[in-house]
Design a protein that fits this description.
2 domains; alpha/beta; globular
Length: about 425
């Protein structure tokens, strides 16, 4: 029988009780491929919370590129990360209502409205207690390296993943920011040690990471310049607090492709020098910090552009992870390269407080229906999206879930 997707918003089960089955968008190993082929709507057994776990009724979910990878099965299949599950329910951002709590959970109760961060780790790992959960051997990203993500009526998470939902945000706004914002917060505030007066170069400043990096710099009293792909996106990052922007199309020759001839490399390096000069003109000096997530195409320019004793902090490599750069500019000028990956629960709580206080605002492009989960990921795969996509799940329409006054999310057509 065909599944009735309209039932996703109907909830007759009482708080503290779970229905035997739920609707979910499921990926299975045998159909990995294009998102519209890999994601299929299924009726699946509703998970029960274990000790220190919580089941949340998902009101809205956020779309990230990690579940495009999950659909494609590249660079590795997600089923290698959770081999005990024969299905994958993706989704690493969500806002919803605590529905049932497991044994040992005392901080949260059914009915609490929450947002979720996506870091999971075993409570038994010593790194969780006194070091950093991100260093734990069990560390995984929920909804990507685990199943039971947010593209379902209910999601199962660890209790430490729960954060208070900002009361002034709608469900879709609250579901839109966690993965990218918390990643940017750890990169700048903890890993790079952002300070007032710092000068920061932000690649992809109008993208999911960059819009938060730009706001964090402004809030911290640091000057930032954003690299964007259009003047319209430049205007957005300036409205978020950047002192200026650079349209990357003016410096296409600086992008590292790999395998350049000696003459091609000379020409590329000359463009990098010209770019670094422009950055210095806008900021008044070379940057103390470069906010990196592009990788292969930009990394040589990042290492060259950052000032002596400066820091290049990197959390990803969208243009390729096989980096090739002139290391003399690293050691001779005593620069630092710092890796960063998502954030721990303490950092997520600190960052979320800034959202609650409206000192940082989400930036949202489009809200789509639950029936469009596969289509949303196909848009992202085909690079036809222009920013963050949220999905309505339990929420029946946009702009619901607000219980207090305050600034809404910024609606903008943004991309890398």
């Amino acid at each position: 029988m065909p599944l009735n997707i309209d039932q996703i918003a109907d909830m007759t089960t009482e708080l503290g009780e779970l229905p035997p089955t739920m609707l979910a968008w499921v990926i299975r190993a045998e159909r990995e491929g294009q998102p519209t082929d890999a994601f299929k709507l299924e009726e699946i057994e509703t998970p029960e919370p274990g000790a220190f776990e919580v089941v949340v009724r998902v009101m809205a979910a956020g779309v990230n590129f990690n579940n495009v990878w999950a659909a494609l099965g590249t660079p590795v299949s997600v089923f290698r990360s959770h081999p005990d599950e024969d299905h994958h329910i993706g989704g690493s951002d969500a806002a919803g209502i605590v529905w049932k709590v497991g044994e040992g959970v005392t901080r949260w109760a059914p009915g609490d409205e929450v947002v979720l961060h996506c870091n999971q780790a075993s409570y038994e790992d010593p790194e969780v207690h006194g070091h950093d959960p991100m260093a734990a051997p069990s560390q995984k990203i929920w909804g990507y390296e685990t199943s039971w993500g947010s593209f379902a009526q209910f999601t199962k998470v660890q209790a430490q993943q729960l954060l208070p939902k900002p009361e002034h945000l709608s469900w879709e706004e609250a579901a839109s920011y966690g993965l990218t914002y918390f990643t940017a917060y750890r990169m700048l505030m903890d890993q790079a040690g952002l300070q007032p007066g710092h000068k920061v170069l932000i690649w992809g400043a109008a993208g999911g990471l960059g819009v938060f990096a730009t706001q964090l710099c402004k809030l911290a009293g640091a000057d930032s310049v954003g690299v964007v792909s259009s003047d319209e996106k430049g205007a957005l990052v300036q409205s978020l607090g950047a002192v200026g922007f650079i349209n990357r199309n003016e410096f296409e020759g600086m992008m590292r492709k790999g395998g350049e001839s000696e003459e091609e490399e000379k020409a590329r390096f000359a463009e990098s020098r010209r770019f670094a000069k422009r950055v210095k003109e806008i900021l008044g000096d070379s940057p103390d910090i470069v906010f990196e997530h592009v990788g292969k195409a930009t990394f040589p320019t990042s290492v060259f552009t950052v000032k002596p004793f400066g820091k290049v902090v990197i959390c990803g490599a969208t243009s390729g992870y096989d980096l090739d750069f002139d290391v003399r500019y690293l050691w001779m000028r005593q620069k630092q390269i710092i890796g960063s990956h998502f954030a721990n629960a303490w950092q997520c709580n600190k960052a979320n407080a800034l959202i609650q206080q409206s000192k940082i605002r989400p930036v949202l492009w489009r809200t789509m229906e639950f029936s469009e989960v596969a289509s949303a990921h196909q848009l992202m795969h085909d690079n036809k999206h222009l920013g963050k996509i949220a999905i309505l799940v339990g929420a029946q329409e946009c702009d619901t879930g607000r219980t207090a006054q305050g600034p809404r999310a910024i609606t903008a057509e943004v991309g890398a």
